[in-house]
Amino acid sequence: MRLQRRMPSPAPQSPGRKRVLTIGAFDGLHLGHREIVRRAAAIAARADASLSVLSFEPTPAEFFARGEPPARLTCFRERYELLARMDVDELFCPHFRTINALSHERFTGEILAALDATHVVVGHDFRYGTGRAGTADTLGAAGAAHGFGVTVVDAVFLGGERVSSTRIRAALQTGDLAMARKLLGRDYAMSGRVVHGRGLGRELGFPTANVNLKRRRAPVDGIFAVEVDGLGSEPRAGVASIGSRPTVGGGETLLEVHLFDFAERIYGAYITVRFMARLRSEEKFASLEALKSQMHADVAAAKAALEG
Asked: pLDDT at position 16, please?
């Protein structure tokens, strides 16, 4: 999948090739987002056109947040990888500040004109331009004026409620991984490079892989049974903690994963941690011995959850 981060600028196609474009933040790539991309892919296939996505970094919700932003379901690389698996040909992902100051008329005249799409696919709640003044209706009118088609995709519902990133965040915050799994259409996961930590886990007999989260706020916290991809052909089972480690002084939020029956050094490896079951909340223990005792219990609980 081709990636372009600067806009607006010409993004030439192969001679004679058309472009079908879908636009959105797509945080999480949940069932509703996937339906939008699927509809765009179907239109592209019929037109023998490339399938392109226009998204933004940071997300608009992060850009406008005063104080702590909403938790990110997917960091940039995770979103890129999920789109690539959906056979998207191109991802245009400029910094949102380059888009934010544009009126909806300028967005059409500068951004969409530069991309030269023959068809644009958006969700029912799509908003664009300064003050979110642009809607699916104004986009349709712009398409009629400038010669591109517009398809508006209805919301996807599950259990009588609309599938949304907000609903997924709420499920993850309460530890309802089963509901998050249904809304996403896959296990909730976080990916990143294994980085050096303080080595405390190894001292306690539970060496951990510390994963760089690449987001300002994580949507999950606590202790989890997990499966880890990226360390061979089969997933590795483990137990993970995501939190600030209050027993040892606290600090920034970290994702630490202890893999069962695994002793390799994997610094620099890029892994994906899939959250299978939430075991408990993070706690502050009176001593390292008490923490170590609880870690033994967490390992047993994680193994039981994964085997069940």
From this structure: 65
Q: Is the pTM of this model over 0.85?
A: yes
User: Taking residues 153-162, what's their average pLDDT?
Assistant: 97
Please tell me the total count of domains within the chain: 2
In a domain, 115, yes or no: yes
Q: Specify whether the CB–CB gap between 214 and 252 falls below 8 A.
A: no
Average pLDDT over residues 46-57: 95
Q: Spell out where the chain has E strands.
A: 2-4, 18-23, 49-54, 90-92, 119-123, 149-153, 157-158, 161-162, 189-195, 209-211, 222-229, 236-243, 254-259, 270-280
The predicted pLDDT at position 98 comes to 87
Looking at the fold, whether 144 and 197 belong to one and the same domain comes out as no
User: What pLDDT is stored for residue 41 in this prediction?
Assistant: 98
Give CA–CA dist 121/36, Å, rounded.
7
CATH number of the domain within which 253 lies:
2.40.30.30
Residue scoring higher pLDDT (111 or 120) = 120
Domain span holding position 149: 2-158
CA distance 76 to 81: 9
Both 138 and 196 in a single domain?
no
Q: What is the phi/psi pair of residue 129, to 5°?
A: 85, 165
Residue 107 has pLDDT above 90, yes or no: yes
Terminal CA-CA length for the chain: 38
| Residue-wise DSSP of 51-83 | EEEE--BS-HHHHH-SSSPPPPSS-HHHHHHHH
